[in-house]
User: What shape does this take?
Amino acid sequence: MVRFADLPQEVREKAVGDVFCIHCQKSYRLEEFTEREFRGTLIIEGKCPVCGGALARPVSTGIAH
Assistant: This one.
């Protein structure tokens, strides 16, 4: 599995800087998150800073599987 910390800085910034909350209908920056792999895709998960709802985003690593 590719770890989030091993990705280039610009990829990490884009991934955490624009995560959409379906409850608030707005994008937010993830300050605290966890990472996991799902079917070969790196996923970051956290909570919306406004409503506390679950946020998740697949992260494009640019590495072919």
About this structure: The longest helix spans residues 9-17. Helices lie at 9-17. DSSP finds one helix and five strands in the chain.
